[in-house]
Amino acid sequence: MGRGCLMRAWRIAKEKRATDLTGKGAAIEGGRWNDQDVPAVYMGLTPAICCLETFVHAVGQPTFPLKITCFELPNDASLYQHIEAIDLPEGWASLPADRPSMAFGTAWLKSNSHLGLIIPSAILPLERNIVINPDHPAVKQVKVVEIYDFMYDARMFDVGTR
User: Fold this and answer.
1) From edge to edge, which strands make up the β-sheet containing 143-150?
2) d(CA 93, CA 82)
């Protein structure tokens, strides 16, 4: 990703959090790449991986409005750290998320070295996610491009009828 390359990321969230970049939601319980009380914003680099990532955490079909937000990220390659699966600690993709990925991501977040950490998806490692550090000064350059209504296809929840 060099200069002149538009970078977009996607996030599915409840309507009231559609544009929230504070990372407070992830800090409540922690996540794959952050410990509790450490803010982080999770996004996918495609709408499809964003859908898969949120679907695996759904307990059932959501009964509240969801939005999928497209964000434009700053066009400066030095703001992003790309990590391949081979360079991640053993156990980073464990289910549920455990210490290897949480410690790695928390150390990265606390270093405040980059705006975004681009990592493979634990669900589909061919896809990429990005963790945004809400404490990095460049977070002010992240722009909302568009907000769309979002619903999972009902067939995704019909496992027993196939």
Assistant:
1) 80-82, 116-120, 128-132, 41-44, 7-14, 66-73, 143-150
2) 16
Task: Map tokens 């209504």 to a residue.
Answer: 149
**pLDDT for 1 beyond 60:** no
* Distance, CA of 35 to CA of 7 (rounded, Å): 27
Q: Name the token pair of 33.
A: 């790449």
The H-assigned helical ranges of 5-158 are 24-29, 47-55, 99-111
Task: Kindly report, residue by residue over 81-93, the tens digit of the pLDDT.
Answer: 999 999 999 999 9
Residue with tokens 């914003």: 41
Phi, psi angle pair for 38, to nearest 5°: -115, 110
Provide the residue ranges of all domains of the chain, joining segments of one domain with +: 9-154
d(CA 17, CA 83): 28
Question: What SS3 state is found at 88?
Answer: coil
Tell if the pTM clears 0.85, that is, is over it: yes
